[in-house]
Write a sequence for this structure.
C-alpha cells in the first residue's frame, strides 16, 4: 500500500513552502516505514530474547514491565524505538518552522474568523490548567496543548492540527476527523431514532472530532470543551474557516460547571488516556451528572489491557515511556466498566464496542491522495500492536443513563 | 517588539536508546540528513518538471551558474538553520540540563499523575 493521503487545506492551516512541505511529507513517510517495516522486526527480536529468558529463568515474563527489561538492550528494539522517537521529534520540528514564520498573521487571522462566527468562544482568564496537561509536553509536542507565547496565541493549536495529520499519516482523513465521523456513524447505525439536541465533545482540542457532529446532527447545539485556550481559539477559527458555527468553551471535563441534565449526548475522542488517575473517574461522574435521563456517553479511546498478550502490551506501553504519555499505560490498567458503574451508570447499560473507521468514505468522496486500494488496506488490515489505530475500527465505551435517573449523585 | 518565537523542545526527559549517547545523536543526525536529501531531491524534481513543461532544459545552464551575493547569503543562512536541526538532540540535552528536566522528574510525574 502506498500512502499518499493528504490533509485538506483550510484558511487557518499554516501555509507551507515547498521545502517545509517536503520535510513534513518525509516525516509522514518515515512514520509509515517505522510502522510497516520496523515494527514487525520486534517479533523475531522478542522470540530470540524470550528463548534466552526462558533458559535462564525457566518461566515466562510475568508482565509488560519485565518484558521492557528484557527488550531495552535488544539492538532491534533500540533501532525501532529510537527511530520512532526521532520521527516524532522531526514531525513537530517540520511544522514549527512554518508556524513561527507566520505566527503574528496566524493569530490575527484566527481573531478575524472568530469575530465573524455567531457561535460562542469562551476563554476563562482565571482557568487553572490541570497538571496532567502541563507537567510534560504530551506526545512531545513543544509547548504542550496549553503553551502560549503571546496574547491570543493559537500556535500550539495550529501545530496540533498539522501534527495530527502527520502523526496519523492521514488515516484520520482530510480533516483529521475520522474519529468523530466514525462515532457519528456508530450513533446513527446503532441508536436508531436517537436524535440528540444538545451534544458535548469533551477534550475537543482543535475540534477535529467536534465538527462531524454538527454535520451529522445539523439541528443540534454542539459544544466543544477543552482545558487549553490556544486549542480552543484555533478550533473556533478553524470551524468558521470550514463554514461551521460551533461553540468552544474553556472548561475542565471533570468539573464543567454545567447544570444537571444538560446534554443528550456526551462524547470524547482520545481524551481519557491524556488525563490522570483521579481526573478520569471524576469525568465519568461528571458525564453522568450533566447527561439528561436517557442520554448517552461515548468515549472513543483505548480499551483496558486484558493481559492476554503481554508483548503487545509492552509495545503499546512504549508511548508511556518514549512519547511523554504518562497516563497511557496506567489508564489501560483501569477497569472502565467499573468506573462507569461507580459514576451511576447501571451495569447492563455499559459496553465496549467498535466503531468502524470512516476512512473508506474519503476515497468515495474523491479526496486528494485517498486512493481506493490504500484506504481499503487501512480499513481491512490485521492490526498489530503499535500501529496507529486498531484494525479497521475505533474502540468505544458506550453507556446509557437510565431514563429514571435523577440529576446530581 | 520582536516577533514571538515558539517552543522548540518538548518538556520531558528524552530517553536514550543506546549505550553511548553519541549514538542517539548520530541516529537523529542521520535521519535529518535523509530528510534534507529528499527535500532537495523533490525540489529538483519539481523544478525540472516545471521547466521542461515550459520547454526549458536546465542542465547545461546549471553547470555554468555563479551565485549572486544575495543567493550566497541565503545559502549560508539556510545551512546554519540546518545545523540547528542536525544537532537537535545535543541541544535538547543542554536545555534539559538548564531546566533540571530529569528522568527523576519524569518518573515522579508518571507516579503522581496516575495517583492524582
Amino acid at each position: 500500500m502506498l500512502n499518499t493521503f493528504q490533509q485538506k487545506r483550510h484558511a487557518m492551516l499554516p501555509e507551507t513552502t515547498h521545502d517545509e512541505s517536503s520535510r513534513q511529507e518525509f516525516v509522514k513517510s518515515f512514520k509509515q516505514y517505522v510502522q510497516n517495516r520496523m515494527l514487525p522486526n520486534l517479533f523475531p527480536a522478542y522470540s530470540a530474547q524470550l528463548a534466552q529468558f526462558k533458559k535462564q529463568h525457566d518461566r515466562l515474563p510475568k508482565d509488560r514491565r519485565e518484558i521492557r527489561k528484557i527488550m531495552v538492550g535488544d539492538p532491534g528494539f533500540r533501532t525501532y524505538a529510537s527511530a520512532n522517537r526521532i520521527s516524532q521529534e522531526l514531525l513537530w520540528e517540520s511544522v514549527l518552522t512554518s508556524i513561527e514564520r507566520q505566527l503574528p498573521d496566524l493569530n490575527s487571522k484566527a481573531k478575524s474568523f472568530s469575530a465573524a462566527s455567531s457561535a460562542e468562544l469562551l476563554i476563562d482568564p482565571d482557568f487553572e490548567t490541570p497538571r496532567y496537561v502541563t507537567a510534560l509536553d504530551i506526545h512531545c509536542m513543544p509547548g504542550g496543548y496549553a503553551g502560549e507565547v503571546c496574547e491570543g496565541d493559537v500556535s500550539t493549536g495550529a501545530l496540533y492540527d498539522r501534527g495530527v495529520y502527520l502523526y496519523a499519516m492521514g488515516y484520520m482523513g482530510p480533516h483529521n476527523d475520522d474519529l468523530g465521523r466514525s462515532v457519528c456513524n456508530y450513533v446513527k447505525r446503532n441508536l436508531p431514532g436517537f436524535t440528540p439536541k444538545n451534544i458535548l465533545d469533551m477534550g475537543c482540542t482543535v475540534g477535529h472530532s467536534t465538527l462531524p457532529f454538527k454535520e451529522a446532527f445539523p439541528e443540534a447545539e454542539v459544544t466543544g470543551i477543552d482545558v487549553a485556550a490556544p486549542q480552543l481559539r484555533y478550533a473556533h477559527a478553524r470551524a468558521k474557516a470550514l463554514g461551521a458555527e460551533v461553540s468552544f468553551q474553556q472548561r475542565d471535563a471533570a468539573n464543567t460547571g454545567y447544570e444537571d441534565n444538560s446534554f443528550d449526548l456526551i462524547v470524547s475522542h482520545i481524551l481519557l488516556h491524556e488525563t490522570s488517575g483521579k481526573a478520569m473517574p471524576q469525568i465519568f461522574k461528571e458525564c453522568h451528572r450533566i447527561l439528561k435521563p436517557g442520554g448517552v456517553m461515548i468515549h472513543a479511546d483505548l480499551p483496558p489491557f486484558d493481559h492476554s498478550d503481554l508483548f503487545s502490551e509492552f509495545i503499546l506501553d512504549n508511548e508511556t515511556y518514549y512519547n511523554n504519555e504518562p497516563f497511557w499505560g496506567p489508564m489501560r490498567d483501569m477497569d472502565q466498566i467499573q468506573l462507569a458503574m461507580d459514576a451511576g451508570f447501571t451495569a447492563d447499560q455499559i459496553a465496549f464496542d467498535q466503531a468502524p473507521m470512516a476512512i473508506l468514505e474519503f476515497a468515495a468522496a474523491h479526496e486528494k491522495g485517498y486512493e481506493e486500494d490504500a484506504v481499503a488496506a487501512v480499513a481491512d488490515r490485521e492490526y498489530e500492536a503499535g500501529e496507529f489505530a486498531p484494525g479497521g475500527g475505533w474502540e468505544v465505551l458506550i453507556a446509557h443513563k437510565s431514563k429514571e435517573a435523577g440529576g446530581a449523585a | 517588539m520582536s516577533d514571538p518565537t515558539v517552543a522548540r523542545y518538548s518538556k520531558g526527559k528524552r530517553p536514550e536508546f543506546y549505550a553511548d549517547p553519541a549514538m542517539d545523536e548520530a541516529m537523529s543526525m542521520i535521519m535529518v540528513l535523509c530528510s534534507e536529501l529528499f527535500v532537495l531531491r523533490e525540489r529538483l524534481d519539481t523544478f525540472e518538471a516545471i521547466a521542461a513543461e515550459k520547454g526549458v532544459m536546465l542542465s547545461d545552464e546549471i553547470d555554468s551558474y555563479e551565485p549572486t551575493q544575495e543567493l550566497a547569503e541565503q545559502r549560508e543562512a539556510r545551512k546554519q538553520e540546518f545545523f540547528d536541526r542536525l544537532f537537535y538532540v545535543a541541544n535538547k540535552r543542554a536545555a534539559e540540563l538548564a531546566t533540571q528536566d530529569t528522568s527523576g522528574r519524569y518518573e515522579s510525574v508518571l507516579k503522581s499523575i496516575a495517583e492524582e
